[in-house]
TrEMBL record:
InterPro entries: SAICAR_synt/ADE2_N, SAICAR_synth, SAICAR_synthetase_CS. Belongs to the SAICAR synthetase family. This is Phosphoribosylaminoimidazole-succinocarboxamide synthase. Residues 15-265 form the SAICAR synthetase/ADE2 N-terminal domain. One of its GO terms (biological process) is 'de novo' IMP biosynthetic process.
Length: 295
């Protein structure tokens, strides 16, 4: 993936640029910067969403702290003053949207948990009666809450490709049975705690994905956690099973793109200012609901 103009920190060692995050090598650690870039249908759009990166970064920090009693995470510091000196001149740009993290070896699968039946899971259930080879009861409606959340891992795709859902047995073949079981148990425990807390704040976390890494032989939580980019967030006060739900994330953008006639191939179209403003407002509202703070 080529460097996206306007996102470089001149002179700093950028080693990877994802759809949303820029990662720099600081020697003993990594600096992860969450930008305001927005991707939809696996295409990075030309317009940024103001403060989106700060929202995603700070929601992750909030959840990492909530889950410390379950599993350790990769955060070293979110204080720019603790970063290597070369980054200090960019303090204003990095504040609130970055974290210094440990170098862990990422696990080879993404850990998806589904608490409600929606998206690709709903499509699979409609056509085959199961989700990732997990048989489900007959008669479920779209967006129904599942009696027990499902662990449905996927392979990690390269940028621009789609992840591929796999069964637990395939994950065990990749990771080893003991490790796969550990990731499954951790994922379900984290999801259950996060979903319960979010529900108290009027947010349903329908599904989500986690990434884990290995550090000195220990499994830790890495990347992001329970953000509106890695999860399907629904407002509780609008929830009605039997239909698709209003999404608390970039659904406004997806809907506009779908109706625009764009062919979902690069380059993405420019967004109307109203769509940009509404999306930024939605991300900030999620953050405030969850944390009680404002950005």
């Amino acid at each position: 993936m080529s460097i996206i103009p306007g996102t470089e920190y001149e002179g700093l060692p950028l080693i990877r640029q994802g759809k949303v995050r820029d990662i720099f090598d600081t020697g003993d650690a990594l600096l992860m910067v969450t930008t305001d870039r927005l991707s939809a249908f696996d295409v990075v759009l030309p317009d940024a969403i103001p403060d989106k990166g700060k929202v995603l970064n700070q929601i992750s920090v909030f959840w990492f702290k909530q889950m410390e009693s379950i599993v350790k995470n990769h955060i070293i510091s979110t204080d720019v003053n603790d970063y290597p000196v070369a980054f200090h001149k960019y303090k204003d740009k990095l504040e609130g949207r970055s974290m210094l993290v440990k170098k862990a070896e990422p696990m080879a699968v993404e850990c998806i948990v589904r608490g409600y039946i929606s998206g690709s899971g709903w499509k699979s259930y409609q056509s085959e009666g199961h989700v990732c080879n997990i048989k489900l009861p007959q008669g479920l409606k779209e967006s129904d809450r599942l009696e027990t959340p499902l662990f449905t891992p996927s392979t990690k795709a390269e940028i621009g490709d789609h992840d591929i859902n796999i069964g637990f047995d395939q994950a065990a073949n990749i990771l080893g049975k003991e490790t796969a079981e550990k990731l499954r148990d951790l994922s379900l425990e984290i999801y259950n705690r996060g979903a319960a807390l979010a529900l108290e704040k009027g947010i349903i976390i329908a599904d989500t994905k986690f990434e884990f890494g290995l550090l000195d032989g220990e499994i830790i939580l890495i990347d992001e956690i329970l953000t509106p980019d890695s999860s399907r967030f629904w407002p509780l006060d609008d929830y009605t099973p039997g239909r698709g739900q209003k999404s608390f994330d970039k659904q406004t953008v997806r809907d506009w793109l779908t109706n625009s006639g764009w062919g979902k191939t690069p380059p993405g179209p420019k967004l109307p200012q109203e769509i940009i403003d509404n999306t930024s407002k939605t991300y900030k509202e999620i953050f405030t609901r969850l944390t009680g703070k404002t950005i």
